[in-house]
Amino acid sequence: MRPGDLFAAHFLDHTAPGAPAQIAEQLRKAGLVTLDRLATRTAVLALSSRIMTMSAHRDSDSDGLTTIRCIPRHADRPGYAGLGNGDLAPHTERSGLPHPPRLMLLVCSQPATSGGECLLSDGLHVHADLLEHQAGEPADVLARPRTAYFGAGDGHPTQVFTPHFDGRVSIRLRLDSLARWSPLVLPHLSQLQAAARRHQQPIRLLPGQAYLLDNERWLHARTGFVGDRVHLRGLGEPRFVLPHGFMPASPAPRPTTRPEVLSWA
Fold it and tell me: pLDDT, tens digit, for every residue of 116-152?
């Protein structure tokens, strides 16, 4: 295994006996599983049905999977950047929902001619990075309730880091034109973006290869590409117990019962 090879470090054989239990355990531990031998849509659907209850999406097909490829007429529309061929900033899938899907499965059907690498950032490392700056002020401010609004008119007021009563923390992020921020957060946005990119690790998937991630822990992004890049995406809720996000490197403040109400920039 090459140093820094994220695919090899998180690989599991989904065809092996007991694979669903192994996948569940690795998601609880690391929030990420990599897979292969998913060469057909039927195989992707079969695996998805074993590990999650599929969630419908605006762009999903009738079977619940979404075909991700460049559709030029959508490329410049807010919220449709995934259907273009440009760079994608680190983000949480469906961040504008009150409860984004917990799991995302992304499977390569056809790689780009050039570019199109997936870039994954572990929220645990992003959070720990921000705890090291200014006595942890960026992480603290980014955890204040309702300091962000993600989505269009039907979006959701939220925050980047959400602490839970068991001490764990979830991350939620988008950095496009459908993100609005409280003035309290604006001074820390550059640090947040830098930390999310600093901890990115690349995965260039080959046909039939995939990753499955905890959408409350890992941020995903993509480099721009040339060619007919085609991936299949499945979103859904796990068919097993999956604790929220991650246990932070340092104790996080417990959630408040009365969130602050703040305006957004």
Answer: 999 999 999 999 999 998 878 999 999 999 999 999 8
Do residues 210 and 107 lie in contact, with contact meaning Cβ atoms separated by under 8 Å?
Answer: yes
Q: 81-86 contacts: CB < 8 A, separation 24 or more? A: 81/176, 82/222, 83/59, 85/112, 85/116, 85/224, 85/225, 85/226, 85/229, 86/224
Q: What is the pLDDT of residue 58?
A: 77
CA 220/CA 202 separation, integer angstroms: 10
Q: Is domain 21-238 classified as CATH 3.40.50.720? A: no
pLDDT tens digit sequence for 75-86? 666 666 777 788
Phi, psi torsion values for 30, nearest 5 degrees: -120, -15
Q: Where are the domains of the chain?
A: 21-238
Q: Which residue has the tokens 């942890």?
A: 136
